[in-house]
Design goal:
- The complex is a heterodimer of chains A (about 240) and B (about 110).
- Chain A has about 240 residues and is mainly α.
- In chain A, helix 5 runs antiparallel to helix 6.
- Chain A has a two-stranded antiparallel ribbon with strand order 1-2.
- In chain A, a hairpin with a 2-residue loop joins strand 1 and strand 2.
- Chain B is mostly helical and about 110 residues long.
- In chain B, about 70% of the residues lie in helices and about 0% in strands.
- The longest helix of chain B is centred in the first third of the chain and has 23 residues.
- The radius of gyration of chain B is 22 Å and the shape is flat.
- The relative contact order of chain B is 0.06.
- The chains are: A mainly alpha (about 240), B mainly alpha (about 110).
- The interface between A and B is large, with 58 and 55 residues.
Chain lengths: ~240, ~110
């Protein structure tokens, strides 16, 4: 222990681990905040709010009623299918990343290039899916949600479509705020991960790592990429399933 | 670094060892099966404390496989494993503290 490589990992890898720990705290803070606000609101209860679920800012929305659309399949109720596909895309891109790291250990440049390209493709597909998800969330459903507002002592009915940071048709304002913050922060991580992956691919394809004699950069960026996947696993559970 | 560069100069001629990817694919299958199972539960089980605990449990299992196998932490030295896992306990504390707080806001609303 100690010396040039404390804990038996190189300086770069160790620092990546410590960065990831600090990033873990940031994401946990966001997710725990979600938990705090989620539990300070009532859930939908058929006995109180009526047998058929509808959006209302009185209670927290049930996720499978909000996220139930798929591109090109307009108007069909497909709860959580799209987000499930996104989960598989990200897990699979994590697998291609380990395969790239494994190929790096064998000094196999062709395989590293191949698997890095698959990983980049997975990341871009995920980002595209998320862009669609956001756009759908912001534009809302065709019917919207009718709310009653009291302005200057008069009750006024108004229909809200979709979501922004101030109000949304799905539930309390905090619901959309947390959606934008948490999935947005994760999406930003995916974006920077894709940028790093492209850089690594370029440097591997131009033979820099082969000349250097090792593919450790692939491992370091791999750690980051797996972390992004790990965060999504938690976002998926706490945001979409629970 | 300079030595390394020299050693691999003639690398093109040497045989590249075969890939050993069995563990990677096994981990992938485990992750996929757990995710698929979570989906089934989301549709066929009534929402409640039990379902939430199962979800949390399975998420932690997935986290174990991603961090342990994909991020290779399982095969690092013990001091690194502890240096990474012990700080996570702070999150558990934050979670318990703020969930209690959320429940109390709910009572007061």
């Amino acid at each position: 222990m100690g010396g040039v490589e404390p804990m038996n990992v190189s300086y770069g890898k160790l620092m990546m681990w410590f960065f990831l720990i600090s990033d873990t705290f940031t994401f946990s803070a966001l997710l725990v905040t979600y938990g705090l606000i989620r539990y300070s609101y009532p859930s939908w209860d058929p006995a109180i709010y009526g047998e058929v679920f509808k959006f209302s800012n009185l209670y927290w929305p049930t996720p499978e009623k909000v996220y139930n659309s798929l591109p090109f399949l307009h108007g069909i109720d497909l709860p959580l299918i799209f987000v499930g596909i996104m989960t598989f895309i990200l897990i699979f891109s994590s697998v291609t990343m380990v395969l790239a790291v494994e190929a790096g250990h064998r000094m196999d440049r062709k395989d590293v290039d191949k698997y890095m390209l698959w990983t980049i493709l997975g990341g871009l597909t995920f980002l595209g899916s998320q862009a669609w998800e956001w756009s759908h969330f912001i534009h809302g459903t065709e019917q919207g949600t009718v709310i009653n507002e009291i302005i200057n002592g008069q009750t006024i009915q108004r229909t809200i479509f979709g979501a922004n940071l101030v109000e949304n048709q799905y539930g309390p304002p905090a619901f959309a705020d947390l959606f934008f913050f948490i999935t947005g922060f994760h999406g930003t991580h995916v974006l920077s991960g894709v940028v790093l992956n492209v850089l690594i691919f370029y440097r591997s394809a131009t033979g820099l790592y082969e000349r250097r004699g090792h593919y450790e950069m692939v491992e370091k960026v791999g750690l980051y990429w797996h972390f992004v996947d790990l965060v999504w696993v938690f976002v998926f559970t706490f945001f979409y399933l629970v | 670094m300079a030595d390394n560069t020299h050693n691999h100069e003639g690398h093109g001629g040497t045989e590249i060892p075969k890939a050993s990817t069995a563990i990677i694919w096994r981990t992938f299958i485990i992750l996929s099966v757990i995710t698929a199972f979570e989906f089934t539960l989301a549709f066929f089980m009534k929402a409640g404390g039990l379902r939430t605990s199962i979800f949390v449990g399975m998420t932690l299992v997935k986290a174990f496989y991603i961090v342990g196998e994909f991020m290779h932490l399982k095969h690092e030295v013990k001091s690194l494993i502890w240096a990474i896992t012990i700080p996570v306990l702070f999150i558990v504390w934050l979670l318990i503290a703020l969930m209690t707080e959320g429940g109390s806001i709910f009572e007061l609303r």
